[in-house]
Structures are given as C-alpha cells and as structure tokens.
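Action item from last week, closing it out:
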Amino acid sequence: MGAENSRFAVIILTAGKSSRCDAEKASGRRLVGIEKKKPFYPLLGRGVWLYSLAVFARRSDVVQIILVVASSDRAEVEARYAREIASANVVVVEGGAERFLSVENALKRVDADVDYVAIHDGARPCLTDDAVDRAFQSAREYDSAVLAVPIVGSIKRGELTENGAVVTESVPRDGLWEAQTPQVFKRELIFKAYRDRSPDFSPTDDCGLVEALGVRPRLVLGDRFNLKITSETDFAFVENVLKSRERDGA
C-alpha cells in the first residue's frame, strides 16, 4: 500500500481524573456530571473533546476513532454524546488507572488493517488540521511523529522547602522541547513498545515507551496554542484562541 493510502486509527484519551483543575471555578457556575472533567467541560457550548474529534473525523485517512473514558463515566458519555459517537463511528473503550494503561486498552481495539496509530489528549481542543497534516506525514516517512514546540523560557530546577520552593539549578534550554499530542506511530512500532514495556516503567507519554526500544522518535513542530488544559485559567485562554479562529474563518 502506498503512503498516500495509509490508514490511521486515532485514540482520544479522556479517562483522567482532572484532579488538578476545578472546572466549576473556571465556569463560574454549577456543572453537572462529566462536565466537571476537563475533556467534557462545555467550552463555547461544546464538550472540549469534540473539537479534536472534529479535526480527525473530517480526514479521509482516519478510518477508526477510539474514545477512552473512565468506566464510571461511560454511560453518561455514551448518552450525552450519542449523536457525535454515531456520526463518527466512534468506538468507546474504558480506560485504566494510569494513562499508559488506557492506551493499552485502546490498542486492543485497533482494527487489523490500520497502518498507523495516533494518540491524542482529549483536553487539547486547539489542535489544527495543519499540525495533524505534519504529524501524519512524518509518521508515513519516518514511522513516528511527536508534535512538540521548543522551550523558550528560562528553565529552573526547584526544590520544596519548609519556606517554599527554591532554585537548585538553572537548566540550559538548548535542545529542549515540550511534547504535545497527537503522537503518531507505525502500528508495529507502538504495539511492540507496549508489548515490551518493562513492568516497573510507567511512562508519561507514548514517546517514552518507543524510546525504551532504542528508537529515536521524530519531533514535528507543533503549535504553541495546542496546549493541554491543566488549570482553571487555561479554559479562558483556549476559549479566546477558538473565538479568534472562528472570527478568522480558520
């Protein structure tokens, strides 16, 4: 099969606990059920994860979309988003206690005829078509793609003391990148990375597992607006980004 006919599966992760983010505080109003979790927060009237779904669902090279949810959220997610799930033929899978276990569960449902697997955080609603184009093309050419942006600020290593945090070291930022998602890998590569994972290794992202194989994943320039919602203030930021794109017709 030629590269232009490559088939991609996309895994969208929404099973996290959102323990570091108070969505009700960000909204200034009472939220109900799963709305309290970042991926399902009503951002400009739509659940956060739906912005990413839209980007992937309109691509002809994406042949499968898998949504990973917490087991406690599954019934509400399937009821609340029944129309969107049916329209994009989304497969709903229950996640695990940690991120990599959620991905592992999703990989079990990837169709046999898929060539590449893209893994994306459902709490990154500002993903663009151009960024996905770059990531998918890199995966076709180099078997891997990790969207990332170079670190531009001064980096400090700190230590917590009884009097607060103190700087213990200034870290040179040369060559440092902040990883984003989607992270995209050739099917055989990501399956091997999970199959060969050391039991005592709990990676923070999929790139870390692929690195453990001795592979050097390809960095692909991302977008600084493609941030993962982590704190209450992030909601206002991404709302402004999305409103700006809407005004510009992007």
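Closing note: The radius of gyration is 18 Å.
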